[in-house]
Request: fold
Amino acid sequence: MVLQLKLVVNAANVHQGGGRTLLLALLQATELPTVVIVDARLKLPDHLPDNVQVMAVTPSIRARYEAERRLAKLCEAEDILLCFGNLPPLFSNRARVFVYLQNLYLMSHKPLSGLTFHEHIRILVERVWLRLCLRDATLLVQTPSVAAEVQTSLGRTPVIAPFSPTEAMPMPVSEKEYDFLYVASGEAHKNHRLLVEAWELLADQGHFPSLRLTLDAEREVELLAWIARRVQSRSLRIENGSVALVDMPDTYARSRRLIFPSLFESFGLPLVEAQRAGLSLVTAERDYVRDVAVPDETFDPSSALSIARAVKRSMQLGGDNQIVPPASAFLARLLAMS
Reply:
């Protein structure tokens, strides 16, 4: 009996953000018999190809462990196992294993400041898991800058294999409603708080650009409450609303610019999408940005003032640099104050 090659995708810890978007694109594109293990929280589309079989796993330690045991039995030597959630199989596997590494927190040199205690412990455990269980798996990454980080942290040379969800995003014609759009979930490295602080600096100077965020109201309660207090106290023009994948083209079409202050990314998918949609890009000056896009304005993502100045440049609001007078003018002012 000749066994048919199948694709097994382990995405048990993927349920939101860019990882979800790319995973769904893979499932729509595969022509192989495919088994995908997903987080039970993942919102799947109503229709998937007939060749895709879905196995949902609840987000608990016991359920994940049982899923790893099941994964070892599921794969044959002829199969391809794509670990889409950063971690190699816990147990030895007969298939050819590929690990798609997208979480840069798993690199040992990345600081974990800003993470909750639970997230901190999880990342430390996953760092150990990655190193102990990688075995002879092939590492895949999305950009040259991430490849360099992997080489430094893991001593392994990964294959650079990026992909985007669609060849092109059909763009509706819409009135421009937002001066700036930030498409991001609420992790600490996404830098939402500093972005809002930049909007406060702009308000101090009499500028009130509109900003649209896409935070999940159920997951980001604390962050959204903090933003709401700032918006109310300073009359900032910031609004939030999560956006379904099918509605993203319209959200881009209603925006003039994408602002992207994230400190690091494995693959800045919104940068790719926004550039295709014709938005101006106002971004952090980071390697991950220039891996995938050409920004129109850049800033230091550790400085709210730098962000505010980039916003003003992009809106042609003029600079805030003072003209430094010569020594003679200084002495004249000194005499006038004497």
The first strand starts at residue 7 and ends at 11.
